[in-house]
Design a protein that fits this description.
Length: 322
């Protein structure tokens, strides 16, 4: 006969006339009582219970084993020694790495190993992604999360890499609501659904000159930080509620100032692309903060101070040596 669950918490047999069993141990007694009747009923019930507990124990053991294996695998990948040839790659192709203070170098190594463990890289348009490519992108991305252990780009899963400029197609609506398809040549893109897209030749230009204030990896991963709160608005997750007021004031004033200077034809330290919208402004000034900190502090001291508080590193400490 089939079993069905009673609303009060007991288990009842169909077609049995019993009062509704109570919740708890007494409920179990009522529920099991009919099973104990008949030929070998007691022995059969005991066997069923034993099998059930054995299956549960096996399932728990398997789950614990899988968790322990994954934990061991993660710790081996992330907390083992940093491979010597990775050190050589970073020293050769990312000069800023060797200028970092020793403590930040060690921290960056762990962040990179964690990043490479969780993120997946995909070559596009026939590009073969090498170990050096993965390592360089990971190192630059993780520079943005130094001294911030809670940051791991948790929502990011995939990094797609094109050999060169790629074309993105989007729908765009005008002031009258007319929707049209647009095609744009892109150096990089950041999506809130866990994807970053990069053009490798642009990445290579960024690491070749870490003093020009332009770096596509820093730019796109700043967008990832910006969207962690669910919106791309130029205001990432800050540490205190009071921080948002001063952040909004400083960034709004600097954004408007950039618009005014561009309108008057002035040459600006902040790239004109930053005037596109607040999200692009945040990404552009992040590039400037890490690559040209001295110039930024001199010409935009309040903006520099806000980014210093947010990123919790001071690029002035190592930029003097570049």
């Amino acid at each position: 006969m089939a079993l069905e669950a009673a609303g009060g918490g007991g288990i009842l047999l169909e077609n049995q006339v019993h009062s509704k069993p109570s919740v708890g141990a007494r409920g179990w007694q009522f529920a099991m009582a009919p099973i104990y009747t008949g030929f070998n009923g007691w022995e059969r019930a005991v066997t069923i219970v034993q099998v059930w507990f054995s299956l549960v124990a096996a399932g728990v053991s398997l789950a614990v084993g899988v968790f322990a294996w994954r934990r061991w695998r993660y710790r081996r990948a992330v907390y083992g020694p940093f491979p010597a040839h990775w050190q050589e790659i970073l020293d050769q192709y990312l000069p800023v790495y060797s200028r970092l203070p020793t403590a930040l170098q060690s921290q960056l190594q762990r962040l990179v190993m964690d990043f490479l463990y969780y993120k997946r890289f995909v070559g596009c348009a026939g590009l073969e992604v090498t170990e050096a490519m993965r390592l360089i992108i990971a190192a630059e991305a993780c520079m943005l999360i130094l001294n911030r252990p809670s940051q791991r780009y948790a929502g990011l899963r995939w990094i797609y890499i094109y050999p060169s400029t790629f074309v993105a197609q989007r729908e765009q609506s005008d002031a009258y609501g007319v929707v049209s398809q647009t095609r744009s040549a892109m150096l990089g893109e950041s999506w809130s659904n866990g994807r970053v897209i990069l053009a490798w030749d642009s990445v290579a230009r960024g690491i070749a000159d870490f003093n020009d204030g332009r770096n596509v990896v820093l730019h796109e991963f700043a967008h990832q930080l910006d969207t962690e709160d669910g919106s791309a608005d130029g205001a990432p997750l800050l540490y205190t509620r009071d921080s948002y007021a001063i952040w909004s004031q400083v960034f709004s004033e600097e954004f408007q100032k950039l618009h005014r200077e561009l309108a008057m034809g002035f040459r600006t330290l902040i790239d004109s692309y930053g005037a596109t919208n607040p999200a692009e402004f945040f990404a552009v000034v992040t590039e400037l903060f890490f690559e040209r900190p001295a110039a930024m502090r001199e010409r935009h001291p309040e903006l520099f101070e806000q980014l210093l508080n947010y990123y919790r590193v001071n690029p002035l400490e190592w930029s003097k040596q570049l």
